[in-house]
Amino acid sequence: MLTLATTSPGEPEVFSSLQGEGPGMGRPSVFMRLSRCNLACRWCDTAYTWRFTGDNRPHRDEVAFERGENQVAMSEADAAALILSHPEDRLVITGGEPLLQGAALARVVALVKAERPALHVEIETNGTVAAHAELDPLINQFNVSPKLAHSGNAAELALVPERLDAWARDPRAWFKFVVATASDLAEISALQARHAIASDHLFVMPEGTSSAVLRDRSRWLAEEALERGWRFTDRLHIHLYGDTRGT
To answer: Quick one: which H or E segment has residue 132?
Structure first.
């Protein structure tokens, strides 16, 4: 069984949209959002995947979600069929932290690729969990987003040295750092040097859930990326659809 997030009670969050971030920005894709996360970012825009009633980990909105309304369990076969009902040739698996469900996810992706062998599959991960041995060879791209100090997560939980080293060696891995203020840049530079992250695989992205905030932060962050040899990514889906589920 796979545990998915929902767009509304009982409706799994599987949808067609444009990829909004990173190296695939603007590409038509089918998305599947899984529930549960091992971290708790203060600014997380999908807190409905982990901050359920009784979870008091800090979040800026201080909203708790009812688990029964925001999670749905599906068989691997049903999840694969739902993905295949969408025509796109790219699958983006997001969360939450998808790699927490690696074994079940491997079975889903195997079923999907059996029907659509050329499907490009990418996983969005916080970088703390290794891909399951049966899942790893099925994945074309990992979008790795390590969480900086401003996320509110303890470094020993969010920045696991051996995992960051492994991702940096994997040519399928693209790093995406969420930036709120200019003070975050020194932390990114230190992580890049410590783990030998290639500049052409390192994206910086403004934190924000509104076009106004993203534009304001993009003005100076784009210049910093240019000067440091990093890549810059916006959040296209926020500009197009706002901060909404299923987009």
So the answer is: none
H-helix segments, 102-160: 102-115, 155-158
Look at residue 223 and tell me if it is in a domain: no
- What's the structural domain count of the chain? 1
d(CA 169, CA 122): 17
| Cα→Cα distances 112→78, 87, 217, Å | 11, 12, 39
How far is Cα 186 from Cα 204, in angstroms, rounded to an integer? Answer: 12
**94 among annotated binding-site residues:** yes
* 54 marked among binding-site residues: no
Taking the whole predicted model, whether its pTM rises above 0.90 is answered as yes
- Provide the edge-to-edge strand list for the sheet that holds 28-33: 14-18, 28-33, 90-94, 120-125, 141-144, 173-179, 202-206, 231-232
37 has binding-site annotation: yes
In this structure, is residue 244 part of a structural domain? Answer: no
Residue 55 assigned to a binding site: no
* Residue 19 annotated in ligand binding: yes
Q: Is 170 within a domain? A: yes
Domain, as residue range, for 79: 2-179
DSSP string, 81-108: HHHHTS--SEEEEESS-GGGGHHHHHHH
Residue 22 assigned ligand-binding role:
no
45 marked as binding residue: yes
pLDDT (tens digit per residue) in 111-157: 999 999 999 999 999 999 999 999 999 999 999 999 999 999 999 99
Any domain includes 158: yes
Task: Give CA 99 to chain center in angstroms.
Answer: 11
Total residues found in the chain within this entry? 247
The mean pLDDT value of the chain amounts to 97
Q: Tell me, what CATH number does 44's domain have?
A: 3.20.20.70
